[in-house]
Each structure stands twice: as C-alpha cells, then as structure tokens.
Design a protein that fits this description.
With 207 residues, this protein is mainly beta. The chain is built from one helix and 13 strands; from the N terminus they run H-E-E-E-E-E-E-E-E-E-E-E-E-E.
Length: 207
C-alpha cells in the first residue's frame, strides 16, 4: 500500500468517532529485546483500543540508524488481511498504519499488531538504544498512551581472537634441511589429506 495514499485515507476518518468520553485511553506499546552487536533483534507492536471503537490507526517508530538497521516489519493476523495497511520504512522511521473498511465501519481490535526486526550494528558498543513511538494518528484525535521500546546491546557478537602464534603441527620431518627457514610441503596432516606450506623454525636431526 502506497504510504501517501494511506495517509490520505487516514485523514478521511479523523473526527469520525463519536464525542463520547473514553473509559480509558487507547495505547501503543513497542516491546524490548536484546542481542549482541551484529545480531538481529525483534520487538512486538501492541495496540489497545481502550474499550472504544477505532477503524484506523497510524503511528511511527523512530530509531538511531547508526546503531540499528531496519530489516523487516511484519503484520500479524487479522491485521495483515486489511486492504489498507502499511508496515515499512518511511523516511527515517518505521511506519505502521491500518484502516478497517471505510465503507462499512469496522474496528481495529486490541492485540499484537506485528513485529519489527532490526540488525544491531557490528561495531555498536554495549548499552541501550530507544525505539520511540511518534506521530500517532487516530480518529477523533483522542489522547493515546505510548510506551517506547528499548534494545539492549550485550556486547560484540564474536569475541576477538588473540594474535596468532606459532602452530605446532606435531610433524616430524625425516630429512635434515639445509636452512631452518626453508619452506616445505607437509601432506596428509592428521590423516585428513590436508597439505600446508610450512616454514621450519629449526632443523631437526632425525638420527
């Protein structure tokens, strides 16, 4: 669904809700997740209608793109069956929007709308980074309670390896070498058929 078209359709339903006071505020909650640098993380997007009837909702989720990169936004059933829906990047935010039937007024039931997946930057340092709910559009323009999400970065995905040192292959060379730095081929290491070019660190007298 084209984002501009969805925004126009969303504008058509603003103010269509009755003037009755709501028993409680509708709410949007972005979940939390954690992972190491370089790994994927996924957060749920939860909607509650506040015991009222809304046939359309649209909001954005902001994030720091130097720490997270967007991978996907997937809607759950029944929300993914609506003709008018969006769940994708829009500029620098993730845009989530739903409208249930403009002709015969429907409703957006409470539940987990879907989930957004990010990849943590491979060079990200341990800490937290927020997922901020913003630009909420809801018919009748009621007060909406929003809860931001958070990604906790636990550390690097792979521990750095120590600098490589000499590797002892346990190979005995039967012939004396004229120069300790001579490179020779050692075949069938460990019975695996592997052949390596190795440089001798010393000459061994096979006796």
């Amino acid at each position: 669904m084209n984002i501009k078209k969805l925004a126009i359709l969303a504008g058509l339903i603003i103010g269509s809700v009755s003037g009755n006071a709501l028993a409680q505020n509708p709410s949007i909650v972005v979940g939390d997740d954690s992972g190491a640098a370089g790994q994927q993380v996924t957060v749920p997007l939860t909607w509650d209608d506040g015991a009222a009837t809304f046939r359309g909702v649209d909001f954005k989720v902001g994030f720091t793109d130097s720490i997270l990169s967007f991978d996907s936004c997937v809607l759950n059933a029944p929300y993914n069956t609506y003709a008018l829906k969006v769940c994708q990047m829009n500029g620098s935010d993730v845009d989530v929007g739903l409208i249930d039937d403009l002709v015969s007024p429907g409703t957006i039931p409470p539940g987990v709308l879907g989930q957004v997946t990010f990849t943590i930057n491979a060079l990200a340092t341990p800490g937290t980074t927020p997922l901020v709910v913003n630009t909420v559009v809801l018919e009748g323009n009621p007060t909406v309670d929003t809860t931001d999400g958070e990604i906790t970065i636990l550390g690097p995905a792979y521990a750095s390896s120590p600098a490589p040192g000499p590797l002892n292959l346990g190979v005995v060379i039967k012939d004396a070498l004229p120069d300790p730095s001579t490179t020779v081929l050692v075949s069938n290491i460990g019975g695996l058929g592997t052949t390596l070019a190795v440089t001798c660190s010393e000459t061994v007298d096979a006796g």
